[in-house]
Amino acid sequence: MSSSNTENSERSEDSLNIDRQQGEQQERVEESATSSLQSVATGMQPSVPACAAGVTASEIFENNLRDILRCKICLALRRTTLYLCQTGHLICASCLAHLLTDAQLCEETPKCPICQKDISIPVRNIAAELAISELPSNCRFCNEKFPHGSLDHHERHECQDSPVACKYSRIGCKWFGERKEASDHERNCEFLSKTPEEIAATLETIEVDYDSKHDEIERIFQSLMYSLNSERTLCVDLQLMCYCNNHQLFYTTTDFHAFNELWIIRARLNNQNDTDPANVISFSYQLVLKTEPRSSLMVQFVALKGSRSDIKISMQLYKHVFTPTSLESHYCALPLTDCNDCIQLLAKKGTKIRIMLSLLD
């Protein structure tokens, strides 16, 4: 009986010890959680000097968010395409382009300069882009703050200080001023008192400008239709391969045959020596005749999206007359659809494109 009481007593003491340990552990967890919440609250709330300086909690939160969303290389808040390295460091498109270009020139694997992780497969951070678009920005005209995503609409359609044209500009009025002054001007616009003959004379000059633009569009359309219907039109699938020459980054294709001649495509990254990260990334390309022609060849050409390629190219026609003394076209803009396509082209050793060529009379 005594032995049984002893065992029960020991079990009771063990239970009490376990309950005591669990209680202490729970207290530590609660203390830790409380401490964390206090730290967060302290970080989110303005300090006494900040309050004294008139800085609100929302302004402090906004500034902290701006610091988080800055490019970790140039430390600028970019409202462009943003990317992530493998460990989550935010890199703007311009800085990533420089990193990829330097890696291509040195024939090395591109790495994040902060954590040294491979960044040869760029990954967009759309969440950061959307967060930045919601950050307030100052209107260029009234200096009021608006979410960046709605700023363009405000400046174009709502801002009373933004410059606008008179609504009678379609019939020749050339007044240009602030939106808040437009209604007063339009009530007294001199074109309201003009005769139909005077307005018709003004419209004739306006229609000349419109007709010239329309003729240019029509010419491009007819040129494209002629190319598609021509028996001397062909499409060639090629691969742009990256190479370096005198510390410059170029791309080239293998030789291909067209119109009984031998050709290549050569491309390059524009502004390679420009270190300003705010500049837009762009490419250009040229058509090169490798053989000497027996007569002049007028060739119209356009670069298109390659088969199974994720790099999209806008259609833009170019023309060049090839002669024995002119074997290379000028460098023409390679109109990639957006910044992400430029980054993808820089990140790849080889990119597929399609070239359509037409031999014109």
Question: Topology, pairings included?
Answer:
Blueprint: H1 2-44, H2 48-52, H3 57-68, E1 82-84, E2 90-92, H4 93-106, E3 123-124, H5 126-134, E4 136-138, E5 145-147, H6 148-158, E6 163-165, E7 176-178, H7 179-187, H8 196-229, E8 233-245, E9 248-252, E10 256-258, E11 261-269, E12 283-289, E13 297-305, E14 318-322, E15 332-334, H9 339-347, E16 350-360
Antiparallel strand pairs: 1-2, 1-3, 4-5, 6-7, 8-9, 8-16, 9-11, 10-11, 11-12, 12-15, 13-14, 13-16
Helix pairs in contact: 4-9
Q: Can you tell me about this structure?
A:
The chain has 361 residues and is of the alpha+beta class. It is built from nine helices and 16 strands. The protein folds into four domains: 59-134, Zinc/RING finger domain, C3HC4 (zinc finger) (Herpes Virus-1, 2-Layer Sandwich); 149-193, no CATH class; 196-229; 231-272 and 279-359, Apoptosis, Tumor Necrosis Factor Receptor Associated Protein 2, Chain A (Sandwich). Strands 8, 9, 10, 11, 12, 13, 14, 15 and 16 form a nine-stranded antiparallel sheet that branches. Helix 4 (93-106) runs parallel beside helix 9. The longest helix has 43 residues, at 2-44. The protein is flat, with a radius of gyration of 33 Å. The chain starts with a helix and ends with a strand.
